[in-house]
Amino acid sequence: MLLQNNYREQSNLQEHHVIFGKGNRELSDRYGLMVYLCPHHHLSSGGPEAVHRNQKIRIMLAKKGQKAFEREYPTLSFREIFGINYIAPEERDNAAQKAADLGEGADGFTNIPDGIDEELPFS
């Protein structure tokens, strides 16, 4: 699973399909685009920070899902499979420029900021 976090064993967490609607829930299953959220941050009854109620958070997770998908499946088209694109061209250009600016580190690895490890905007 691409986005699945390490908290699955906690019984109070619920699976959230990052890309959903129009058959995309099944595709999220197939490609591992799920995260586990507490009920407060998952369900629309949870308040303004709930992913099913807060479009900003939902889009943020969808972007992270698309980036993870494109990294894992570079020969597949996210747009063709899911029928939508969440990443604007300027966001792609900015990420590529940041990666080029960073170069290779002393340890031989290149750190490419993809936003996947950013903290969610709720605690």
Question: Which tags fit this structure?
Answer:
7% strand, single chain, globular, two-stranded antiparallel ribbon, mainly alpha, 123 residues, 40% helix
Describe this protein's structure.
By secondary structure, the chain is mostly helical. 40% of the residues lie in helices and 7% in strands. The protein has five helices and two strands. The protein has helices at 24-31, 39-42, 55-72, 78-82, 89-102, and strands at 14-17, 34-37. A two-stranded antiparallel sheet has the order 1-2. The two termini are 23 Å apart.
Main sheet: which strands, in order across?
Answer: 1-2
Distance between the termini: 23 Å
Average of pLDDT: 76
Shape: globular
Strand fraction equals 5-15%
The helix fraction, in percent, is 25-40%
Number of helices: 5
Q: Please trace the helix and strand order, writing H or E for each element.
A: EHEHHHH
The biggest sheet, with number of strands, parallel, antiparallel or mixed sense and barrel status, is:
2 strands, antiparallel
- Rg over alpha carbons: 16 Å
Uncertain runs are 104-112
Structural class: mainly alpha
**E-strand count:** 2
Quickly describe the structure.
This protein is mainly α and 123 residues long. It contains five helices and two strands; from the N terminus they run βαβαααα. The protein is globular, with a radius of gyration of 16 Å.
